[in-house]
Design goal:
By secondary structure, this protein is an alpha+beta fold. It is 46% helix and 11% strand. The chain has twelve helices and ten strands. It binds 2-acetamido-2-deoxy-1-O-phosphono-alpha-D-glucopyranose (GN1) and magnesium ion.
């Protein structure tokens, strides 16, 4: 497809000189659109994966509501130019739509590229981890008063572990790609934690922990930092919805506090960086202590185990299903990812008591 032509459908300033791939998301395809003139901004073009995000108009409406709300809450703290670096700006098409459907039925959108921003591959120090925690807590806090109606639930039950486990069992029973034998020990290992992993959904259903608007994809790569390693903006708002706080806390640990990579083939590289974890928890409480309940605090460290477990299960499920959900770069990529997540999960099990005691004690100190 002709990306230049797609970009022309949107109201952008300047002359485009380059469109090249950006980032490493597993679902949507992202490009940086650079313009010639220094006075014109650059842009981010995204092809929305509508096999996964089936209702693009509703998805877009959510994004508009979220970005407008975040902008209105932050505007008292920043100048207009700075505000454009603190929250995503949706660029409309020439016929005033927030997305563009091309002749092949693909959906596209454009955001302003956030100037002088960077992503971080692996957290290098406690300061970065602290600002990451601060930013995710602030994100949740700013969305507490999002006016009704409720957001569209684009991916229902996204982190509903009970439903994920049931779907996994169906995949195993079908074994459509004949890959089960190869991964039987991983399957048995994961299923042995079934009861334990269903406990958060049970606490939610019992009314012990509330549903809140959370991000649901708190990967390190979904944060833009400035050159001084301070958080500018949280991106990738597609998954934002109602769920439990511990999912965001847990996914941040899963994706940011592993000394190895998400798809590390050398399992010896994989472990929890406890120092970074503690700094992250400190930052998180700075912005969440106003609203987080004691019952939620009791779920935070568990959330790390849970989301890591869930991610291992999701990667393995996709491997068994013939690699249809996540983009893959190599043979058996989802299996490699699943094994790496299982390894990290094992390390979180070993470190659980220390993580759990730390967050519980720290909470007593900060309130
Ligand atoms: C996907 O699109 P991306 O790469 O930010 C996935 C997340 C997973 C993540 C694993 C909609 O996120 O849930 O945690 O991969 N997003 C969706 O890296 O499924
Ligand atoms: Mg994402």
């Amino acid at each position: 497809m002709d990306l230049q032509l797609i970009v022309k459908a949107f109201k952008i300033e300047g002359t485009v000189i380059d469109i090249c791939p950006l980032g490493n998301g597993h679902i949507n395809s992202t490009y940086k659109v650079s313009t010639v003139e220094t006075a014109s901004p650059d842009y981010v073009l995204q092809l929305i994966n509508h096999n996964i995000f089936k209702n693009v108009p509703a998805l877009s409406e959510n994004t508009i509501r979220l970005t407008n709300h975040l902008r209105s809450k932050l505007q008292k703290n920043y100048s207009l130019t700075e505000l454009d670096r603190r929250v995503l700006t949706v660029i409309y098409t020439k016929n005033e739509k927030s997305y563009y459907k091309d002749t092949e039925g693909n959906y596209w959108r454009i955001f302003l590229f956030i100037k002088d921003s960077k992503t971080i591959e692996i957290l290098e120090n406690g300061e970065q981890a602290k600002t990451m925690g601060y930013a995710f807590g602030q994100f949740q806090s700013l969305l507490i008063d999002l006016p009704s109606p409720p957001l569209h639930d684009i991916l229902p039950d996204f982190h509903n572990t009970s439903k994920r486990i049931e779907a996994f069992k169906k995949t195993i029973a079908e074994n459509s790609f004949g890959r089960l034998n190869e991964v039987q020990s991983e399957v048995d290992f994961l299923l042995s934690f079934e009861t334990q992993m269903k406990s958060i959904v049970k606490k939610g259903e019992a009314g012990i922990i509330p549903l809140r608007i959370i991000h649901q994809d708190t990967k390190l790569s979904n944060i833009l930092f400035d050159k001084n390693d301070q958080v500018l903006c949280i991106i990738d708002l597609d998954t934002v919805s109602f769920a439990y706080l511990c999912y965001d806390f847990g996914d941040a640990v899963r994706a940011g506090m592993n000394t190895g990579k998400e798809d590390d083939e050398n399992l010896a590289n994989i472990s929890l960086n406890m120092k970074i974890f503690k700094a992250f928890a400190n930052g998180y409480y700075q912005t969440s202590k106003e609203f987080i309940t004691k019952a939620e605090v009791e779920t935070l460290a568990f959330g790390a185990k849970l989301i890591c477990y869930e991610q291992a299960l999701r990667f393995l499920d996709d491997y068994l299903n013939g690699d249809q959900y996540y983009k893959t770069d190599k043979e058996k990529h989802n299996l490699i990812r699943a094994r790496a997540q299982i390894e990290f999960f094992k390390d979180l099990l070993k470190n659980f008591d220390e993580m759990d005691t730390y967050v519980k004690n720290l909470y007593k100190e900060v309130i």
